[in-house]
Amino acid sequence: MKDRDFYFPTEVADNFIKESGLGSYLGVPILDKSGEVVGHLAVMDSRPMTDHYKYKGILKILAARSGAEIGRKVAEERLLKVQEQLEATVLTRTSELAAAKEEAEAANHAKSEFLATMSHELRTPLNGILGYTQLFKRDSDLSKSQQKGIDVMQDCAESLLSLINDVLDLSKIEARKMEVLSETFFLPELLNNVSQQIRVRADQKRLRFETYLSPDLPDWVVGDERKLRQVLLNLLGNAAKFTHSGSISFRAEWMETPDPIISPEPRPTIRFLVEDTGLGIAQEQLFNIFLPFQQIRKSRDFVEGTGLGLSITDQLVRLMNGDLFVSSQPGKGTQFRLSLVLPRAMVHASIQPAGSQTGRIVSYEGDRKTILIADHDWENSSILSKLLIPLGFSVVEAQNSPDVVRQAIRHHPDLILLDLAMPFFDGYATLEQLRSNGILRDIPVFALSAKVFEQDRQKSLWAGFDNFIPKPVDLEALLLKVGRQLGLIWQRQSALENSKNNTPRSDASQPILVPEAAELEALYELARMGDIQGILSHISSGELANPDYRHFVSTIRQAAGEFDTQSIKEYLHASLNNV
Predict the structure, then answer these.
(1) Distance between terminal CA atoms of the chain?
(2) What is the mean pLDDT, run by run of 10 residues, along the chain of 579 residues?
(3) pTM value surpassing 0.85
(4) CA gap 416, 444 in Å, rounded
(5) Are residues 333 and 373 in the same domain?
(6) What range does the domain containing 70 cover?
(7) What is the DSSP string of 244-269?
(8) Are residues 186 and 328 in the same domain?
(9) Contacts with 7 (C-beta within 8 Å, 6 or more apart), sequence order
(10) Disulfide-capable partner of 281 in 154, 185, 215, 328 (CB 3.0 to 4.6 Å)?
């Protein structure tokens, strides 16, 4: 049939076997859409065909219809086959994706467990280091060099703790488990604490640190205090790290700007500005500074660090629905602009912030209180005991869960500090035993834990603990929580007593002489400006060259050699009080 319009043999017997009995045959090809022969349609008869043209037209019509129908069926079969293959592929891919998802979730869970375990294992020894450094700093009998060494120890330990917190925060952000809290806090205290920490770093590098806090800033605001503190410390710490000379400035201003997209009402916004005269960043590198583990590393400008601070800062600002912008010029400095919505909180005037009272806690008024410390690590128990006993508390210790219940029944303490990782039964099971005992159920219990994820804190509060104390323990923060829980009135060492402790000590054989007030005030102004070279020049000339002031000059020179302007200012302040 190929290349033929029809086939009508005149000699049928030459084309078919005799047994078929055919007398005539007329066939036409069945063509597909492309013109290829896919079959044929024929009329056969035992009699001769006298007019085959009459049948030829009919056969062509039927052949055309047959070709179309065959093409449709072939297409349907191919489509069905493709569909079956596609469904099989989808099932395979779905199964593979499900398996991959399970593997990813298992890996993510394993990572979270690993980080939680490592956090616990690292925080436990850090609790001992930071705990004892805090205790040592409460000892007024230490020499200046010993205090300096303890400060270095504390700074190193807190740097390690900050690194641990950064890694934990990054993992929580990646897992979308980071929550933004909405709590009332005292804004001036937060800003002052942040400024004091950065001022110390600036003094060490002989940098000017300038602050401007707008007078119309609200005292109490609603937001996430911890995250705001971390963001500001990261931005200011980054400025101090990459600035080798010049100044760092920190500004905070109150704005009420309308946002027609969200609400016609003004939005209570605080704008923070951090500006430095440091190394600066090239325009093409500005985006990279917000990537994890990224730093602008030039051989002559390299500064140690993990490269996590700005990445976490950027993501925390996003979580708090804030805006963070950066501009920079290489060799001239960098400016970060942060805007956050922090509504003003209505707080009764009688409520005082936790840090409004100054001076170190030395005791408390009223009857003596008993505190049961339950921790299987004696190092942790000893830190808390050495903090609480000198303040007038009676302390009882327990090493395991059954011992906690026994000691609680025997001494009936006013407060229990209970570690969640206890032998025999964990802290939750121990709390259930305490709450099920009629004579113990009303005793307040604080949870102690080196697991510091937000879900750990929430879990402990839901379980019935009265408060949550993360490790390493901030001893001053712990005392404030204890005071609130027990209704204590603290007795503090006054600023006058602190000044007396810093007064130059007299020697029986040769009293220490100090210069006149004008000289002391001039030195104090130089120390306030952080001008170490000016201080050294001043004590080496004029009236201070007098040998009678050698002990005074030696003390100033030693502190100046360590760039310890804070100690110089304290020493001069105490000297001025005695002139």
Answers:
(1) 128
(2) 61 63 77 80 77 76 84 87 91 89 77 69 80 81 78 76 72 66 85 84 86 89 88 89 90 74 67 91 78 53 55 86 90 91 73 58 87 88 88 90 92 94 88 91 92 80 92 86 90 54 44 76 79 75 71 77 72 75
(3) no
(4) 6
(5) no
(6) 1-124
(7) -SSEEEEEEEEEEEEETTTEEEEEEE
(8) yes
(9) 1, 25, 26, 27, 28, 40, 42
(10) 328
